Amino acid sequence: MARLADYFVVVGYDLDKRGGSEGQGHILQRFPEKDWEDNPFPQGIELFCQPNGWQLVPERERPSFFVSVLTDINSERHYCACFTFWEGLDNPQLPKAEASEVDEDEVPGLVQPAQVFAPKSLVLVSRLDHTEVFRNCLGLIYAVHVDSLSVPLETVIGNLLTCVIPVAGGSQINESPVCSLNLSVPQALACDWLLGCFQDQRTITLGAGDRQVIQTPINDSLPVSGSSVAHLFRQLGIVNVLYLFCAALTEHKILFLSSSYQRLTDACRALLAIMFPLKYSFTYVPILPGKLLEVLSTPTPFIIGVNSFFRSETQELVGSMTLDVIIADLDGGTVTIPECVHISLLPDPLLQQTQTALSMVLDPELEMADHAFPPSSTQPSTLKIQDKEIRAVFLWLFGQLFNGYRWCLHIIRIHPEPVIRFHKAAFLGQRALTEDDFLMKVLDGMAFAGFISERGPPYRPTDLFDDLIANQVERIRQEECSPHKVMNHIKELAEQLFKNENPYPAVAMHKVQRPAESPGHNDPKNLAMFPLLDDVTVQLFIDHAAAKLQTAPPVVKAELKGMVPSGPPLGDIVDRHGHVLANSARRLEVVRNCITYIFDNKMLEAKKLMPAVLRALKGRAARVCLTQELNQHVLQNRAVLDDQQFDYIVRMMNCTLQDCSHMDEHGIAAILLPLVTAFCRKLGAGITQFAYSCVQEHMVWTNMQFWEAMFYSDVQNHIRALYLEADGGEQSIASRGQQESGPAAGGQELLGALELASEQSRLWPTLSKEQQSERVQKEESTVFSQAIHYANRMSYLLLPLDTSKNRLLNRSGIGDVESVSNSYVTNSIAGSMAESYDTESGFEDAESSDVANSVVRFINRFVDKVCNESGVTNEHLKALHTMIPDIVQMHIETLDAVHRESKRLPPIQKPKLLRPILLAGEELVMDGMRVHLISDGREEATGALGGPPLLPAEGAIFLTTYRLIFKGTPNDPLVGEQVVTRSFPIASLTKEKRISVSLSMDQFIQEGLQLRSCTFQLLKIAFDEEVASDLAEVFRKHMHKLRYPQHVQGTFAFTVGQSGKTLVEHKTKDKNQSIKTLSKNLVKSAKRTIGRQYVTRKKYSPPTWENRSSLQSELDEDELSVSEELDQSSLTLSSTIRSSDRQTMSNVVERACCRDYQRLGLGTLSNSLTRSKNEPFRISTVNRMYTVCRSYPGLLIVPQSIPDSTIQRISRCYRQNRFPVVCWRNSRTKAVLLRSAGLHAKGVVGFFKSPNATSAGPSQVDSTSLEQEKYMQAIISSMPSYCEPSGRNTLGGFTSTHMSTSDSSDKLRQPKIGALMKQVMGGKEDVPGTFSRGALGQRARVISLSQPRVSGKARNPPGGKWGSIRGSGRLSAYNPEVGNRLSSKESPQPNGGPSEALFLRQQRAYLYIIGDKTQLKGGKQDSFQQWEVVPIEVCDVRQVKNSFKKLIKACVPSSATSEPSMTFHRCLEESEWMCLLHRVLQVSVLVVELLDTGSSVMVSLEDGWDVTTQVVSLVQLLSDPYYRTFDGFRLLVEKEWLSFGHRFSHRGAQTLASQSSGFTPVFLQFLDCVHQIHLQFPMEFEFSQYYLKFLAYHYVSNRFRTFLLDSDYERIELGVLYEEKGERKNPQVCKSVWDYIDRLNKKTPIFFNYMFSPEDEEVLRPYSFISNLKVWDFYTEETLSEGPSYDWELVQRGRQERLAEEVPDKPDTTTPKSQRRIVWPCYDSRSRVVPDAITKLLQDLQSLEAELGLPPEKWKDTWDKIKANQRAEAKLENRPSFNSSLLMSSNLSHQRRSQGVYLPESGVGSSINLAMDRETSTTSTPVAGRPSTSTLYSQFQSTESENRSFEGILFKKGALLKPWKPRWFVLDKTKHQLRYYETRQDKECKGVIELAEVESVIPGTPTMGAPKNIEEKAFFDLKTTKRVYNFCAQDSPNAQLWLDSIQSCLSDA
């Protein structure tokens, strides 16, 4: 029972304390005046009566009513019902005199302008929330006062204060009504009142003729909401309220705004009502007075209501804070959520279902809105019913959210009070909601903690929610998908809620006096003031009632306590939902089998299953299965293992724990905890190592919440056991307890524990004091003993095995209770725990004390928390604190012994480290470190594309002075015998990146490195745990040091063979004195000549653009002296070199350049240096001291007529002083190819401006540009076509048909050049470069080859294009006529008339300058000039660099990806590498065409050392067959790349200085272009594709000195240019790549191309469309068996070793050995395992020679012999043959011989048939794309008869001058052949005619030598694509038969 009202208070306006704008209220009277003992009077009521402030108003306002809520210090809520009315009083501002008059009786009719109205409040304070009753009661008091009823106010108030009603339970029938009634109540009223009681209502009256029924709720745990929830939804809408609901549950701040106080209270009440069963436990103020607004700045969550009157102040306050308040405006219906606030919403299906259900309640018409025949009316329920329906939806929602929560409760104490803990992780894990933000926050919140403490106890009264959780979960689950069933359920729940709130809705016998019509504002009659009440009278009432209550018998209402049912367990729910990761039965079987094998010691079987088990353990079911199996073995006393068993069990445990989160939501770690302390191995000498010392590295052990949950679970088990023993008699419980098994806190066990606790709680009151205290003591001891046990367990898992290493403490983790880091224990423990143990424990000096300290603190903190929560006594707690340090220290001592012994154990058998084979002079820098090679994005090695999984592999990484090598064996036991090798030169390392790798086997996160090389290799390694991290760091430092040496002399090519690894200057006298002197002299004189400007010993860096002008001027000033000095010395080279050094000059002359210049007839350098005047060019020595241009060679080809002084001046116009020099001359047309850098921006305009432009005076620029013109003219004059009398016309007019050209094939080609030029420059019709463009262009180009054009004056160029260099669609803005003119298009005059100089315009220029568009702006062209500029856009070095990076990532991706945007071809396209190749090839082909038609070309791009070099090299390669031989190619590279100063060191980032510039593969791009040409013309190259790959590999490897340094000048300076051959100290160490290739070429045909069969003077014109280009297999292939094959000695030695191993000790005679073997594409070297036919024959020859003991013959000699024999045979047979080809029958056409048989060096070359028909002519063309049918059918062996369709004797005419011979012919339909034999019996076929090649069969005529006496009709001819065969049958019918048979065969095909 409870008082209806605790206090009645009258509050009025305080006239004394008014000041300023705001007045104050004060309490006039309060009853009772003394505080109740159980309920003190709340403070500050006057503030809450007028929340807007106490103010006087000029007009009377209507009375108002609202309820405020105050919360006291004990979190009790007090409801203050405020009834406010206004009383008139004199304006207090008027003078006193007037005021005194007003006090007297008023004169009627007198106007009182000075009167104001003051508020007065009647306040009723209660702990019950009956708003309507309070409204009625206070309204009655006001009515009694206003209408001056006869009842005294004291009586009414006295009755009100003495009214006692039950808190809950409705009314019991046998109860007498308890209500304090005044005796003076009229009789009639008493009867009415009795009537009400008779009807079982709680009816009250205050003695003023009133009567009220109070409906108390049946169950007071359910909130009472009236219709406030429905109102809230109407005001704000579904989504907004759901936001507020989630915000309140996840502890955000919520502020309601409204202009109505009652609405604020109702909204707050509604929000609390829908949160049921959770209770809000933060600040709750439905109406906040204006004076207390600063409460809003509290940091804690709140629900507060504020009047809209204070909106602006509120926003200022909220704005000044962190803006984290959610504002709900009830009047406007909006909810404002600040940006910084993230509200976690309900998990997804629930949110959707809740919204649907709410919408069906609030708007039932919605789902019928679209019905054709809607029901007549579907009105929503009344507000009160709707209110309950909405609440039912939320109750249903909580039923789903919290179902099964009771299965996650741990009961840790039953007596004296139940102590219950909730296992959050298990709950989330079983619901599969560990990731859900909302639920995590709710479970961590205060409201849920309150929910557990209130609803956790197992023995208590239950309510609707308990019933829902216990009995309706199954129903909820079944109804989930059907909204209508959900609605029915919700309506049922709503009914129960309504019934609880309104137990007797039918009876509503309210009778309350209301005041007469409230007095109007203009009512002249002023109301009397509210009188002062008589305290004594009221107090008498109160005392009287109190006495009566004391004498009355106590009301005992039996509390309906009972056991709370738990509902269905959670496990079933989740499994039915299928949220658990399904593990197939097969996987679980694998896990069980593996464990059985381990315990049966079948280790080999276990090892094979291990990878599958580790994969299966990713799934939860498999992990549970593992723990169950292991538990079985512990129970069978099989926990002591041997080393290998122990290792496997530990590995499986680690794998299982690896996938557990730190929360351990599935309880896996919990089940493993007892197992890790059970399994062990004996280490000898009585020392045992337990499994826990090997599974410490998991974050779950550092999570305090995990340990707490484990502890509570164990305590619960023990307490349960305690009572099961005690209550042995209670069979039911005991038997249930015995059924339970397993250490998990779940299932049957939990039911038992809670049930037991419930039973014990029920019995508790019946026990005697002694029994009670005994039980309390037993429970406390149980908890205490568990605490000691856990202190031990925690020390096991937190102390590392090697405490001296302190390894555990280097990572972060333990200090943070919720730590989610990868670690286990850390230093931060030390900082985060306040308690430190007593230092008297005596081991603080131990070296491991820091580990011990932190562990002790962690355990202390744990013990404090759990012991306080579970009520352990202080004495016990102190004892624990003393014990813990000793426990830890004891454990450390045990561990030390274990650690010592475990080190003595032979290590687990890891594969032994394989040693790599090293080159001569290569030394190990760091010995092998054990690592795992992880698979990258290439799928071949992982077995993903079939084949064995070679990766991941375990082995070691070795760092040598030359390479980085991994050598190891695959992890997969099925391929464990194979050896995996990956390596690359250290100099090719382009990127190094740290990674962390999780190895599937060991499940640890390992640190690793990802190393990428520009030889298209990637090493992704993870260091083994035995490798210390500092060692890995040392490895990285050494690697960097080797990759980027300080100077180029630090590279392997220089340091090779030097032990001591330091660079030693040669102090000893050496043979090669002359070289040293030469280089010294050269450098000295160079310094003297160019003075202070350039010469330093540092790396050459060209002056920056800004310094150009100053440099120019310095040079200009010094011009005279420089030229004088030069002139003196320019006549003879010998004048500057002392006679003793003359011989060294011959070295210069012997350089590649000179040999080539002499071959090309570009000038000689005789001993006397006399110049042959009739030669157009001379070899100039102007740069012999490298003074003119540092990056050019010493000897240069310049026009005869240009003196050296001019050259010096000209050179200044060009970048890097790289002026134009001749590098090649066409032997046929005598056109020359020149190379230079681009012009300086300054020189361009002067050079190209119109010659007749006037200038102010002869300036330096003018004279230079004149000299440049002279230079150009000299080049043009050197051309024979220019000197011929007929002038330009000889080769000039491209399109004039009447002009005869010397070469008929030129006529076919000429029209193409214009098209080429337009494509290169970019014309109007250009389309952006795409893959499809190539195909179109190819077709067009082929047409232009095959159709000679006649006078094509108005013809357009071919429609197909190659695409411009940039592929951009812009018209070339510089010189459109060049392209037009070359393609014979007219350029019309601007006025539209015919062009005057048409004839001249159509001339081809003598010199074309290929220049960079960006350099040539503003250049004008004159039609009479003899040179023209072709502006092209070149690819920038940056573009090449970026493209290469993308290409590497495409070919060697770092990780596998399934994204469609990341496929190989997509990445390749995005890299644009093919586009760059296309551009270079396109320009090269254009230049080749121009040179071939007689124009000279000058390539003048960028700095003249990148793209220029690529283009001129490719042009020479395409134009001159010599460069396609071994010698020629070497010479080409030495001349164009090395001598002309391509910056190899800079572009290859070979030293520390060039590290920042990055790797730019310009030379690789050139080699790729050569590879593309090689693919299209396989018979034109003496060298094979392997040769190109070899160069591509070694130009970055730094094994040879050839490709080091940036120019000849730098090489001379270092003394490496002219190294004599005899100087080598170490014969194995080759300094030049060319010598190495020569040496190797003598031993093996690896570099030779068997198909080499060049045509004389053949000019190659490759297709350059992207569709014709292929990805070079150098980028994608790898051989894991032996590593890269480019260090030939290593490969050979490796193969010999492997062969030696493969030879068995004893010959195995029992089983026949198969000759077959499997070839794995990425493992074996295919070219070795499956060699081509010729290589195989040569190998067989060698082995035969060895067997017969003959001296081995060199392969080249053998090859040459065979060729010679074949030539001899060819001559005998008198048939034309290729000059040197073995492939007489390869049927390749002259024009492009790439279509025929192609022998890749790694392919299978069996398609070459050396014994094919001798009589085939070699000039015929092949049928493209059709494979040879003979090879198709040769694999079928069959009987003769079935393949002989028709046979007989025919005469056949032999080849030239051969007679007719009879042969037995067989027509074979199956093989589609006509075969012939000597005789019918002959088995050996003499020849075959392929019917596929037959074009026609026609009757023939007899020819010379035909058989006599045979009629003419018997002859017939067979015409094939190769030749015509003449046949003669025995007679004409026979001939007809043959004709028909052959014809039918052809038609069948």
Please describe what this structure looks like.
This protein is α+β, with helices and mostly antiparallel strands and 1949 residues long. Helix content is 40%, strand content 13%. The protein contains 64 helices and 42 strands. It has a seven-stranded antiparallel sheet with strand order 25-24-23-22-28-27-26, with helices on one face. Helix 11 (383-401) crosses helix 17 and helix 44 (1304-1321) packs across helix 50. The longest helix has 31 residues, at 874-904. About 21% of the residues have low confidence.
- SS field, number of helical segments: 64
Helix content: 40-55%
Distance between the termini: 110 Å
In what order do the strands lie side by side in the largest sheet?
25-24-23-22-28-27-26
Quickly give the structural class. alpha+beta
What is the makeup of the main sheet?
A: 7 strands, antiparallel
Mean pLDDT rating? 75
Number of strands: 42
| Poorly predicted residue ranges | 95-113, 171-201, 572-582, 729-751, 806-848, 1060-1144, 1167-1171, 1243-1259, 1285-1311, 1323-1402, 1620-1625, 1777-1842
Gyration radius, rounded:
52 Å
Shape: elongated
Residue share in β-strands: 5-15%
Any key phrases for this structure?
alpha+beta, 7-stranded antiparallel sheet, 64 helices, 1949 residues
Quick summary:
Helix content is 40%, strand content 13%.
